[in-house]
Queue: 2 jobs
Job 1
Amino acid sequence: MQRTIDKQEVLNVLKPVQDPELRRSLVEMEMIRDIDIQGGNVHFTLVLTTPACPLRDMIVEDCKKAVLSLDGVQSVDIKVTAETPRAKGLPDRQGIAGVKNIIAVSSGKGGVGKTTVAVNVAVSLALDGAQVGILDADIYGPNVPLMLGLQGSRMNVRHEEGEAEIFEPLFNYGVKVASMGFWIGEDQPLIWRGPMLNSAIRQFLYQVDWGELDYLIIDLPPGTGDAQLTLCQAVPLAGAIIVTTPQTVALLDARKGLRMFQQLGVPVLGIVENMSYFIPPDLPDRKYDIFSSGGGERTARELELPLLGMLPLEMPVREGGDRGVPITLARADSVSAQAFRKLAQVIAGRVSVAALS
Ligand SMILES: Nc1ncnc2c1ncn2[C@@H]1O[C@H](COP(=O)(O)OP(=O)(O)OP(=O)(O)O)[C@@H](O)[C@H]1O
């Protein structure tokens, strides 16, 4: 005879199961919902804190194991969904309605792959099911349109009675995109001066019709100038990421960036080391440390920041960027694509931890 299992029993065995990153009980965080029991078959919904949860499989396995330990349970069916929490941020900053987490991607100097990281992280989050936007604030060289296959596009502007102009973002590969390049033309050199720059950036933050977003990625210009200051002071950032390469000079630039964010009260999520090692196209199983190894780890240690990921230098990354098809889509099984997917999940995990702690 089948024993009757009740919901409370299921909740009781699930109580000790924790989200390993948040280190809190799934039950206490109300991540277990809609329990339905049909004889020995238990169904429920697991609501994660990000669609890009890095530990999703592990959490599902832990839940299954716990419920199967209950006497009389024959099968466990778990539907996994996600509700991304909203970043806290300082009270004097004005959030963007509908946008839960704003993440700035920065670098101390140009050419380290900041835009490549921003674009591939955005696409990776979208591939995991998140609602994602990217704001190209790199006014001195807006490369996001090129890398997302939107070169030459223009943003539509809506004028509503008595309202400010509203810009409609473009959309490609699951990502909403706004770029200075859609406005001024990618090849038009522009000299931005303080107040003009300030108002352009504010328009891009608050007058783009972003809709509902789990993550808005901002590709900052390199360095620590006016644009970075304006942005960091305007919106409540969930966090900033500093992209570096392994050379020792990069450490100095990274430190400057870190200081700026700290002074502005912006949490730094960690360091991303790009071009960590080289994978030759004809020998994809080989790895060469061209810039000396361990630079990113050393930088992260010295700055007391986590190293969020190490990305290889691989030709298809540049080719994908130039062709407007990010490596995460163009060569989804490549080492680089896998590294970007993992990086995006690590970032999403950190953002959730920060929002809920
Ligand atoms: N991991 C990588 N492997 C191969 N090529 C890469 C990698 N990362 C970036 N690149 C290439 O290096 C060049 C510079 O990258 P990117 O434009 O992303 O840098 P950036 O830091 O945003 O530069 P800037 O801010 O000066 O515009 C691009 O051609 C890009 O395709």
Note: The chain has two domains: 7-82, 99-356.
Job 2
Amino acid sequence: MSEIQVSETSEASEVSEASEKPVPGDALAGRAEKLDAADALAAVRERFVLDDVVYLDGNSLGALPAHVPDRVADVVRRQWGELRIRSWDESGWWTAPERIGDRIAPLVGAAPGRIVVGDSTSVNVFKALVAAVRMARETGGSGQGGEGGGGGDGGEGSARDEILVDATTFPTDGYIARSAARMTGCEVRPVAPAEVPGALSGRTAAVLLNHVDYRTGRLHDLPSLTAAVHAAGAYAVWDLCHSAGALPIGLDEHGVALAVGCTYKYLNGGPGSPAFLYVRQDLQERFDSPLPGWNSHAEPFGMRPEYEPAHGALRGRVGTPDILSLLALEASLEVWDGVPIEAVRAKSLALTDFFLECVAAYVPAGRVECVTPAEHGLRGSQIALRCPDAGPVMKRLIERGVVGDFRRPDVLRFGFTPLYVGFGDAERAARVLAEVLAEAPGEE
Ligand SMILES: Cc1ncc(COP(=O)(O)O)c(C=O)c1O
Ligand SMILES: Nc1c(O)cccc1C(=O)C[C@H](N)C(=O)O
């Protein structure tokens, strides 16, 4: 498939302007039809197994790419069933973690050789955070590129005994950070991402941040926060679970030191598909993993008692890779062939704008409150609507074929995966939401 072009005309800004005055339902349905007809990504939907449900939960579990079942069957029947042990070499099993990392790399703005795939996001948060603390202490801190030089307050011998953690983080990151802190003799301080620059000091070793907030869908400023953390001589670890595959990230461009992300949301790798770990090139030789398994040994089959780390991204490996899940992920990444991440971002903004416009037109004022920022630069690829009876409302929406999710205490979450969600889906979701809300009048 040839590369899909990003349109110069921003449909997103057009719908934002239009959103000021409510438009009748049939006009919105007509607009949705036109937008779908003009959508350069519309045909990508055919690469997925979908039914007539409006699936707005790809920010939790991405849909199944249609060719994956046969590919997984081949891995099981032929590679495992017939080739058996030979597949470690002949089917490329042994090198899959780096090979698949290189396939994800362009989607997150990384050159080849910087990403390894394996383990869960939680495990990779642990590896990255402990490695960040170790690196910060090793040099007195300097997240910035290049050799030596402790930036900011962090001189040789400074304590570097604090980890700042996004106060609104997805819980697993906070749990892991507190354990990593206990193990490294650090204290954890929860800080709202925007407050991070003011909270940095010569004590800061590492900062764990989410790129997009899982509940509100707010996009945090990765370039400026990374620069601030590095200028203070600490290392930022970014959790990209809700941005990888949803928007351009520019890891290399922005000098990000360490990043992790899952592959089962916008990368559609399947339930429990392995996560990825990015280590900036100039830090790879200093990456001191707290989980140095035999798969990251320089000579894994040397079976030596002493650990000698391998070079490059594969230093982030631990034990035997989860081959069935890895190869399902590798197959699913083929849906990205010819799809630029910029086109995905443009459509994501247009879709979320249009959904908000439909909600404003259909849902009585005051019944829901949007907690996702309206400003494009602050928005991920989901819309979160606060609603006092969000739990039962989402249950009814799902019964009526609109699948989003409920996040405690009161958030209706709608994830927009531009590879397979269309403008007609956005209009239908808002319309059904209004019907459900009309039947369930809320707390009043
Ligand atoms: C931001 C974020 N981090 C981490 C996770 C979970 O990580 P794991 O893959 O270890 O379950 C999720 C979702 O499950 C998430 O939204
Ligand atoms: N990882 C999940 C799972 O194993 C079961 C159910 C949901 C998930 C999720 O990914 C939740 C998701 N991270 C969230 O943002 O809420």
Note: The chain is about 35% helix and 10% strand.
